[in-house]
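To close the section, here is one more complete example, presented without commentary so you can practise reading it yourself. The ligand is iron/sulfur cluster.
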Amino acid sequence: MDLARSQLGEKIVGQGLKYLLSKDIDDLDKLIYWAEKLPMPQNHRVYLESAKKFLKDKDSNWYQFAQRLLRETDPYVKEKIGMNFFLNANFLGVQRQNKMAKELGHSVPWAILIDPTERCNLNCTGCWAGDYQRSEELDFETLDRVMTEAEELGIFFTIMSGGEPTLRKRDIIKLAEKHPSQVIHLFTNGTLVDDEFVAEMMRVGNITLAFSIEGFEESTDSRRGKSVFKKVMEAMDRMRKAGLIFGVSVTYTRKNTEELASEEFVDMLVDKGATFAWYFTYVPVGKDVDVELMATPEQRAYMYEKVLEYRRTKPIFIMDFWNDGEISHGCIAGGKRYLHINAKGDVEPCAFVHYATCNIKDLSLKDALSSPLMLAYQKRQPFNMNHHRPCPLIDNPEMMVEIVRESGAYSTQVNADETPEEFAQKLKNYSDSWGRLADAKWAKSCAAVK
Ligand SMILES: C[S@@+](CC[C@H](N)C(=O)[O-])C[C@H]1O[C@@H](n2cnc3c(N)ncnc32)[C@H](O)[C@@H]1O
Ligand code: SF4
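Output:
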C-alpha cells in the first residue's frame, strides 16, 4: 500500500521526493515550503516552525545535521526513508492512528516493537532478554501479518529487537520488500552486519540500524564480549560507505554514565557517521540481576543535563528513553505510542515490562491493543504528573503492581517466580530517591515557566 501517493497525489509527493533526492542543503527552504502545505496535527506544525528557525542558521548543529544526512545518504535510501518516515509514519500515519483510536476507543501506537527471535550470539551482562527462554522465534507469516495489520491502523514504523534480529536477516529483508511503505528499524549488536547484508539493505532501502555499544572499546567489550566494539566500528564503516542511515543504542549504568555522557563519546559518534543515539538507563529486568548496576539518581540527572546540552550543540539526534518524559508527556508504552511483542508472541506493554494477557498468535494486533493489560496501562497514563518520573516500572513501581493485579497478567519470563510486589520492593530505594530529586527539578522548571 502506498499511503503517501494515494492521499496526497502524485504532484505533491513528486515535488517532495525531488527535493529529497537533491543533495543540496540550500534547497531546504523549498522542502519546508512544501511540508507546510501538508495536512498535519498542530504539534507537527510547532516542530516545523522550530525546524525552520534552526535550519536558517548555517552555524547551528541542526543545520550541520541536516547537511550531513542529506549529503551522505544514498539517494534511493534517502527517498525511501524520507517518504516512509516523514510522510507515512508521521504526517499521514499519525492522522490515521488518531482517527482509528477515536473509532476503537483506545490508543493506537505510532510504532510496534517486535522480536523476530530470542536467540542471540552474545551474552551481555544484564540483558533484558536474558530471562526469556532464548529459543523462541516468530515465523515469517506472523511477522508479516502484524506488519500488515499495523499499516491498516496507520503504523509505518516497525522496530525489531530480540535476541539478535540479524540472525533472521533474510526474513527481515523479505519483510522490508513486502512492506515498502514502512521503516524497519533494527536494534543490533552489529556483529553480523556484513557486506552482503549491507548490499541487501541498499537494495530495499527502508531499513535503519541502531548499533548497541556501551561506550568506548573497554566498556563495550567488558559488557558485550571481546572484539565486539571493533566489529561494530567496522559495521558502521560499511554502512556509512554505502550511504545507509544508522545510529547507536547505549545503556547507561553506574559504571559508564560519565563515559556515555562525555563530549569525546558524542564526538566519536558524529565522526563515525551516526545520525542518532538512543540512550537507555539500565533496568534490572529478570531474576538475580544486579540492582546496584543502575545509574544513581544523580547520574540520571547528570545525563539529562548533558543530553540537553548536546541537543543544542552537536549534529546528532539524541533520545533519552526515560528522561524525555517532558517531550512525550510521560510513558509512551502500553500501546499509547508503542508496545512490544516478544519472540514467543506475548504482547507486552514495553520491552522492559515482562507481562502479558494475550499472545499475538491467537488474535489480531487491533484486539491485542485492547487487551486487559494495555487498557490497565492506558487508563493510568500519565503515571505521574511529574514528567521526570514517567515510568511505572522504575519511577512508580506501585503502579506496575496495580496494573498486573488488575489485568491478571502472566509473567513472560522463564524465571517467573518473582512477584510484581517483590520487583517493586527491589526498586523502592531507587524510585524514592529519584522521586525526591525529580520533584525538586520539576518544581524548579514549573516555577521558571510561571
Ligand atoms: C536487548 S537488545 C536486543 C537487540 C540486539 N541484540 C542488541 O544488542 O542491540 C536491545 C537494546 O536493549 C539494551 N538493553 C539490554 N538490556 C538492558 C537493560 N537491562 N536495561 C536497559 N537496556 C538494556 C541493549 O543494550 C540494546 O541496546
Ligand atoms: S546482543 Fe542484545 S540480545 Fe544479545 S545478549 Fe546482548 S543485549 Fe541481549
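Once you have examined the C-alpha cells, check your reading against these statements. The two ends are 48 Å apart (CA to CA). The longest strand covers residues 111-117.
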